[in-house]
Design brief:
Number of strands: 4
Helix content: 25-40%
Radius of gyration: 15 Å
Strand content: 5-15%
Order of helices and strands: EHEHHEEHH
Largest sheet: 4 strands, parallel
Structural class: alpha/beta
Oligomer: single chain
Number of helices: 5
């Protein structure tokens, strides 16, 4: 099953097309799924493509109380990098879905607790909420999100596996 961005999305049971023993599952979540987690998902999809990991990395996103739309200022900030998230819709994500992941990154707005026995590496990126912030503030949040996503991918993949940009190239995109 594919999401609107063309990426693979798992069903609630946690299975996905092409599941294999070496598939890395990442969930990027916040309460509203309308800002930080949408940026993180777009950067994760880009990083997956750059590294040639389309068959090895599955990305889930969602919120515990999804908004009606992605924040317009977030859409504008991502458009500056030629990343179009205008058609994305916030969605719900369940604890069951997250429990099937290798990594779960919350954006600083969650008290998420998963069973430690599930073996999920949960991180809280403690990001400011871009809702009702000006574009300059959202740009700063965007830069931190991008950096966090790249660092996460660096932990489980070799940059030499696919085409990767240098930090200078990333900042110019």
């Amino acid at each position: 099953m594919n999401d609107e961005s063309g990426g693979e999305v798992a069903d609630a049971a946690g299975s996905a097309e092409g599941d294999g023993d070496d598939t890395v599952r990442i969930a990027l979540m916040c309460v509203r799924n309308a800002g930080r987690s949408q940026m993180a998902t777009a950067f994760a999809e880009r990083e997956r493509d750059r590294r040639g990991l389309g068959d090895r990395v599955e990305i889930l996103t969602g919120g515990t109380d999804p908004a009606d739309e992605v924040h317009p200022v977030v859409v504008d900030a991502m458009a500056e990098l030629d990343i179009d998230i205008a058609d994305r819709e916030p969605r719900a994500i369940t604890t069951d879905e997250m429990a099937t992941c290798d990594y779960v990154a919350t954006m600083g707005c969650s008290t998420l607790e998963l069973d430690p026995a599930a073996g999920v590496d949960v991180r809280d990126w403690a990001l400011d909420d871009p809702h009702e912030q000006d574009l300059d503030a959202v740009r700063e949040i965007r830069a931190t999100v991008e950096s966090n996503v790249v660092a996460l991918f660096d932990e489980f993949s070799d940059p030499a596996e696919g085409e990767t940009a240098t930090d200078d190239e990333r900042s110019q995109e």
